[in-house]
Design a protein that fits this description.
Layout: H1 2-7, H2 13-18, H3 21-52, H4 56-66, H5 72-95, H6 101-127, H7 137-159
């Protein structure tokens, strides 16, 4: 949790103020992407913990409200997804310290497409739900908006300004491999 709190503390503000505007804006974009990584990490860790450690009786209460039956395989799938969210949160906390622009671009692109797919799945579930038995419609709309918003954030960094928002530094001998 200290790492999550540290995500939102801006460091080197005095250094950024003394740099030329182009360098300062690059630092600002990097910090914005790092802040997006931190927000995503925080949401991933929180949702991962909730999904991984949700007791059976909580799911039983939700099935009573929707007239459905408890499904052990579904509960295990939720727990596995929770473990995945915990891992993604951990990875995102560690990625903030990576300076390789090509790697950061790849991560932003992968997360953008992942969140687009997740938001489409939630939207489909919402649009095809039986309104008589589905009591959690507003939760799906909220999930859709959050997932689509995070996808838009990563998409802005990966594809905004022709994909040049994440700076890639290359040595003259590298032969332009960053354009891949």
């Amino acid at each position: 949790s200290a790492s999550l709190l540290h995500c939102f503390i801006l460091q080197d503000a005095a250094l950024a103020a003394t740099m030329p505007p182009s360098a300062s804006s690059e630092i600002g974009r990097r910090r914005t992407l790092d802040a997006l990584f931190c927000i995503d990490a925080a949401l991933s860790v929180i949702s991962g913990l909730l999904l991984t450690f949700t007791p059976h009786r909580v799911l039983l209460l939700s099935t009573v409200a929707s007239a459905a039956t408890y499904s052990h395989p579904t509960h295990e799938a939720l727990r596995l997804y929770g473990c995945l969210r915990l891992a993604v949160g951990w990875i995102l906390l560690k990625i903030r310290h990576v300076d390789d622009g090509r790697f950061r671009r790849g991560v932003a692109e992968a997360l953008c497409f992942s969140y687009i797919l997740q938001s489409l799945v939630v939207l489909r579930a919402q649009l095809t739900a039986d309104t008589d038995t589905d009591a959690g419609g507003w939760i799906k709309w909220l999930a859709f908006l959050v997932l689509a918003g995070i996808a838009a954030g990563y998409g802005t960094f990966r594809f905004g300004r022709g994909g040049r928002l994440i700076k890639v530094y290359e040595l003259p001998t590298s032969g332009g491999r960053a354009q891949r």
